[in-house]
Amino acid sequence: MRCFALLIALFFASWLPARVMAQSFPVEIETIYGVARIEAEPKRVVSLSFIGHDFLLSLGVVPYALRKWYGPYPQGVWPWANKALGEATPIVMQGEIDIERIAALQPDLIVAQWSGITQREYDLLSQIAPTIAPAPGEGDYSMAWQYMLMRLGKATGRSSRATEVIDRIDQRFTSLRQRHPDWQGATGIMVWAGTTGAYTETDLRGKFLAQLGFVMPDAIRTNAGARMGYFPISPEDLSPIDADVLIWLDSGASIDRLNRLPLRRFMRAYREGREIYSGALLSSAVSHSSPLSLDYALDELEPLLEQAMDGDPKTTVTSSEKVGILAKGVSDGS
């Protein structure tokens, strides 16, 4: 009788979808430094990833401790993640990875994708708890957000939820591409206003534009290395970032610098009103490119992209006007 029951159980298990079967433990996750074996569903997760807490929260996992990246929020969590965080108060760490402090937290899972973790740090952390470093073949900060989330879903026993989140957001990108055929194949670039550096398709910010249908300008694609996520641009030659749409990412501290860039006035993006100014909150949302920040980023950027891409230099791109960015036809008198 027991054998018959076991056969029935195995039969039905073979028909279960892969996403359900993935909830069982133990699980193994390959990383660039070794294999993390997780014996049971983790209850005390420490996130060393600069953006990993967003990913965990989107899965319904509140990290016991997290690593703050930057910004004015003491808990390290930006507004788009407040609802998912609720009343929880994770321990907040900043700066370099402190092995002794992490050991004292007694985690049963350490999240270290998008953390800059080294082999030595991984070896030490793996003695404390299973450690999820970047996937094989990926750089420290090159993994797509979908891939990072699926790996965390598997590690925490929430593969089904990860799949649902990815499907929903991917469908949103699909709908945006369908609504805006003029974006498909147009050149687009995100540039850090403080140092005039461009984010390539290796970076999350470049991947964001690519998922909307934009492509990198040829000068960036050709000159940036295959694994280079950030490509410095000389203020003496802005031509590599002169795209069909140019998004300036800023924390609010570089507005004067933008207005003083002498060669900016000669760019087609400037002359045709194709620039978008992205303030601190929107810049952080696309920089995190997390399952929690992407909805905010898409809500904010869609109307701005429509204004910048309408082909009319006289159209005001409202994000620039609000903060006094000197723009063609808005405040330069032309």
So how many helices?
15
CATH superfamily of the largest domain: Nitrogenase molybdenum iron protein domain
The largest β sheet comes out as: 5 strands, parallel
How many individual β-strands? 12
CATH class of the largest domain: Alpha Beta
Characteristic key phrases:
alpha/beta, 334 residues, five-stranded parallel sheet, Rossmann fold, disordered N terminus, five-stranded mixed sheet, 15 helices
What is the topology?
Elements: H1 2-15, H2 18-21, E1 27-30, E2 35-38, E3 45-47, H3 52-58, E4 65-67, H4 82-85, E5 91-93, H5 99-105, E6 109-111, H6 119-126, E7 131-132, H7 145-156, H8 159-179, E8 188-192, E9 197-199, H9 204-211, H10 218-223, E10 230-232, E11 245-249, H11 255-260, H12 268-271, E12 275-278, H13 280-288, H14 294-308, H15 318-323
Parallel strand pairs: 3-4, 3-6, 4-5, 6-7, 8-11, 11-12
Antiparallel strand pairs: 1-2, 8-9, 9-10
Helix pairs in contact: 7-8, 13-14
Could you characterize what this model shows?
There is one protein chain. The protein has 334 residues and is of the alpha/beta class. Helices cover 39% and strands 13% of the residues. Helix 6 (119-126) links the parallel strand 6 and strand 7. The termini are far apart.
Could you give a quick summary of the protein structure above?
This protein is an alpha/beta fold and 334 residues long. The protein is 39% helix and 13% strand.
